[in-house]
Design a protein that fits this description.
This protein has about 350 residues and is of the alpha+beta class. It folds into three domains: about 80 residues, PH-domain like, CATH 2.30.29.30; about 35 residues; about 220 residues, no CATH class. Helices cover about 50% and strands about 15% of the residues. It has 13 helices and eleven strands. Strands 4-3-2-1-7-6-5 form a seven-stranded antiparallel β-sheet, covered by helices on one side. A four-stranded mixed β-sheet has the order 8-9-11-10, sandwiched between helices. The N and C termini lie far apart (about 95 Å). The model has no long low-confidence stretch (mean pLDDT about 80). The protein binds zinc ion (ZN). Zinc ion binds next to helix 7 and helix 10.
Amino acid sequence: MTRPALEGLLFDGRTAAAAPVRVLIEEGSLLVTAPDGAVLHRRPLSGLQVSEPFASAPRQVTLPGGAVVEVADGAGLTTALAAAGRPATLVERLQQRWPAAAVSLLAAVALLWAGYVHGLPAAVRLIARSLPGDVERRLGEGALELLDGRLLRPSALPEAEQREAEERLAAAARLGAPGLRFQLVFRSAARGPGVNAFALPGGTIVLLDELVRRTGGDDRLVAVVGHELAHVSRHHATEALLRAAGVGAAASMLWGDFSGQAASVPAVLAMLAGSRAAEREADEEAVRFLAAAGRTARPMIEALCLLAAASAEQGDPRLPDLLSTHPDVGERLARLGAPEAACGAAAP
Ligand SMILES: [Zn+2]
């Protein structure tokens, strides 16, 4: 069956000139004819290369030898092809329907989002966990060096008090986290009371004087260190650093002059601000740590109460305090099976 011819322009692929032609479909072939009716091209419909159809755009048919014929009435060509038994492909038909296009777009966005939300953290976790111990320790040393110059001062705690805390914590760690490498360092906050502690990559746990002063004689310090040791064993600080600074920046901090880079200060602060998920994990781990070290969960609850009270005091706003960067204290207490009101009874 012959259908009415469509107007077209033939580009021969060698010159820029366009020649007016007619395009018609006849006996399973696409014919391109000159205005005088001479057949210029005859192509079987099967295997015909036609550009994507759009509602009101021309379509191009690719011909042998680099020639292209452009049909201004693209929709007419689509109809003619379909009538001749060459229906639009599934993709072409979907493209014509905006709900399908919208669904595809949403699916693509959802996929990208899932990749960003789940793929990136998973990749970062994998990198953080597979970094050699020496590399993590170097990152930790660099971070401490940087903090020492800016936010931290040497500890003012008497040597004996430091040794006593160290011995008690080491004894608890032998039971609660056997085999885990860590080292405690004592510092004071450059500003504010600093009832604080944090874990750096590679196992360095920084204990600030005021935390040790207020908890040194009891198991709340053991609970806080149990929490920090969980950050160490799960490489949370390295993970947070990679997330905040990116792998490239972390590498340049590692091999460049870490402490000399002012730009790395925000990265280090981000390193100390754990994610909510990491904090929950560390809280749960602290309770297990306490149990393995022969204690109840009570010191953890009391430590949270102390931190809640201390965060109300004016701390150094530049240092992420143990609480503000953590999930809400009420939520954390509830997870430990203690209502927030428990602080009233437990507070020192
Ligand atoms: Zn934490």
